[in-house]
Amino acid sequence: MKRRAFLLGAASGIGATVLGAAEKMPASPAPVVPVIPPAPRSPLKLALSTYSYWHFKGEKVAVEWVMEQAAQLGAHGIDLLHRQMAIDELGRLDAAAHAYCQKLKRHALHCGVDLACLSVLQDFVSPNPAERHKWIAHTEKCIEIAYAMGIPCIRISSGRWKTIPDFEALMKARGVEPILPGYTEDDGFKWCIDSIQQCATLAEQRGVVLALENHWGLSGTPEGQLRIIDGVNSPWVGALMDTGNFLENPYDKLVKIAPKTVFVQAKSYDGGGEFYTIDLDYKRIAKILRDAGYTGYVSLEMEGREPADTAVPKGFAAIRAGFEA
How far is Cα 160 from Cα 180, in angstroms, rounded to an integer? Predict the structure, then answer.
């Protein structure tokens, strides 16, 4: 027993000595974690609108072929014009339409281009609730298409009074038309805001941003476009900046919508525009977007009469020169 007690005591003494020595030793320095600076971000994420190859005239140009052209041109993404797809524009999203959309998704992957936006047309400016519901249902269907294809946003439009039915006549009137008799401008904005609010509910559930374009009609001015966006008041609704849709004093107007912009469609007009021609300064537009903190896609919409095979590369060159200056 005495021998065991001695050994236990000795062990305790050794442990105490070691512990005391350890306490006197300086602490090991914390490992130095190297600070890795972020990689420089490209100043431009260039996309190509399929509309650049088909201006609603003649036989549709297949969007798969446009994806291949975009890859050859070095574009990062594709902006799909819904009306250009090989499905019935207002038809049901049935099994055949689903299968077609998934084939497009696979083809985009093979081409190495992102599906950046789905550009959709609708018109919420109508006193007829059934007419508005038709376009709400259409927009919700397109949200489902975007969700299934992994497209983060869709382009939407407000609609217009349609008191000038012919589009070319509307262009001659600089996009300005009389209000529908018996109604007020406030009526139109209420119809539009209420309709987009309904669509925004599904957009939030599906994670798809609704980008309201500064198009003809109620969103044809910065004030009208922002009135709708602010009225809907959803983080899933923002502005789509079309650089060519403000015909007078464009830069002052682009400045107003830049802070709300979530997607950009950049016009070019080689060979003269289909409806009008604007000489756009993309260096100036790039600064407007940079000052607003925009870092998203800029999608070329070539709307000139020159064949797209030669006009699209020119449009890309003009945008790159402005944004990378």
Answer: 10
Q: Which residues, 6+ apart, have CB-to-CB distance to 282 below 8 Å? A: 243, 266, 318, 319, 321, 322, 323
Sole residue written with tokens 């420089």: 40
Q: Per residue in 291-319, pLDDT tens?
A: 999 999 999 999 999 999 999 999 999 99
Rounded to whole angstroms, what are the CA distances from 140 to 104, 149, 229? 20, 14, 18
In which region does residue 3 sit, left (phi positive, over 0), alpha (psi from -120 to 50) or beta (all else)? alpha
Structure tokens at 83: 């009306």
Nearest one of 132, 112, 114 to 122, comparing CA atoms:
132
* C-beta separation of 203 from 143 below 8 A: yes
CA distance 291 to 305: 33
The number of C-alpha atoms within 13 Å of 101 and in the hemisphere containing its C-beta is: 25
Neighbours of 144 (CB within 10 A): 16
Q: Take residue 319 and report the two structure tokens written for it.
A: 């945008």
Kind plus residue range of the DSSP H or E element containing 49: strand 45-49
Cα separation, 258 vs 252, whole angstroms: 10
- pTM, rounded to two decimals: 0.87
Give 243-254 pLDDT, tens digit per residue. Answer: 999 999 999 999
